[in-house]
Design brief:
The chain is α/β, with parallel strands linked by helices. The protein is built from eleven helices and ten strands. It has a six-stranded parallel β-sheet, sandwiched between helices. A four-stranded mixed β-sheet has the order 1-2-3-4, sandwiched between helices. Strand 5, helix 3 and strand 6 form a beta-alpha-beta unit. Helix 1 runs antiparallel to helix 2, helix 8 crosses helix 10 and helix 8 packs across helix 11. The two termini are 45 Å apart.
Length: 342
């Protein structure tokens, strides 16, 4: 892929829907997620044509009221998801070049693939929400964390995506296994450290009982040891809790489609530990001097949340569990000078 990517949060983009020629009473929205990179002309043309055909199919043949198109840049891969609230349709009834076979050929020609996740026709009176029992349209997620505020926050972050739905939540390993046994699920998004079991226990048991389940870790800390524990237990990816909405949604979609990933601030457990950045070292030095997060924020003209994020990154990079052990690790590594004046 070309260099010089730019980080982009989900943002509206009207180009995907311009050619539908549908009255404005019908909604069509498109978004871009991930690190945007330029695409070869042939690839961009194929994606635009297939996405446009999928949108037209939904509006003309499935009587959709809303269609959402998401273009996601996933490292070396790119994915276009088209999700609608229509009734489904018979693809053989479309004779204007929008058949699934032609769309698949266009994807094959540029080294991609078309994934048909239509739920099938619905009858009058059926629930308008996409139903995974009838097709692979929505990614169903179970969130596991012992802090209710974290579960609520994750649910809110995922709620903006039409193709992702939180179908359950739990506060412990035992609760999570019970929820998974009773609730069809595609992705388990869980903290590594839960109050009723050792780290990695939930991953191992969930994968053993549900072999097709995708497991992503979402943890406060990401020391190399923690990441290694999760991956060795069978996790498909590891994120930290300061992950942004776009990255979180990308991770869920990527993992669901077979990718294994580490978040931006998660160290590769097979590599040496990353060194703290100059700003992270500055924060660590102020912590060593006894300043609180609020005092550090005032001195550096940062928000308290930003200071906390820097400390989390320092802890992850130094293999520390809290600010005190981060300071101790900083001295051991020679990053802090006991004689330094603040």
């Amino acid at each position: 892929m070309p260099s010089n990517p730019a980080t982009v949060s989900p943002r509206p983009s009207t180009g995907w829907c311009d050619s539908t020629r549908r009255p404005p009473t019908h909604g069509c929205a498109s978004f871009v997620d991930g690190e945007v990179s330029a695409l070869p002309d042939t690839t961009a043309d194929a994606l635009l044509r297939v996405a446009g055909e999928a949108v037209r199919n939904a509006l003309r043949h499935a009587d959709a009221g809303t269609v959402t198109v998401t273009l996601s840049f996933l490292g070396e891969a790119v994915c276009v998801d088209v999700v609608d609230d229509g009734r489904g349709f018979d693809p053989d009834a479309a004779h204007d070049g929008s058949g699934l076979a032609i769309m698949a050929e266009r994807m094959d020609a540029v080294g991609g693939r078309l994934e048909d996740r239509r739920p099938g026709p619905r009858r009058d009176g059926d629930d308008a929400r996409p139903d995974r029992a009838r097709g692979d349209l929505v990614i169903r997620v179970v969130v596991v964390d012992d802090h209710p505020v974290v579960r609520d926050g994750v649910r809110g972050q995922l709620a903006v995506a039409a193709d992702v739905e939180v179908v359950g939540e739990a506060a412990s390993t035992s609760e999570a296994l019970a929820v998974l046994a009773a609730t069809p699920c595609d992705v388990l998004l869980a903290d590594l450290r839960l109050p009723d079991a050792e780290p990695g226990t939930l991953v191992r048991r969930a994968r053993a009982e549900h072999p097709d389940l995708v497991v992503l870790m979402l943890s406060t800390y990401a020391t190399p040891a923690d990441v290694r524990t999760a991956l060795d237990a069978g996790a498909d990816g590891y994120l930290v809790k300061d992950t942004g909405r776009a990255e979180l949604l990308d991770a869920v979609r990527t993992a669901r489609h077979g990718g294994r990933l580490l978040g931006r601030s998660v160290p590769d457990p097979g590599a040496g530990p990353a060194a703290p950045s100059p700003r992270e070292l500055e924060v660590l030095r102020l912590v060593a001097a006894g300043l609180t997060n609020r005092q550090i924020a005032t001195r550096l003209r940062l928000g308290e949340a930003t200071v906390k994020t820097h400390l989390q990154h320092v802890c992850a990079k130094l293999g520390a569990l809290d600010r005190a052990s981060a300071v101790a690790a900083g001295y051991r590594a020679g990053l802090l000078d006991p004689a330094r004046e603040i």
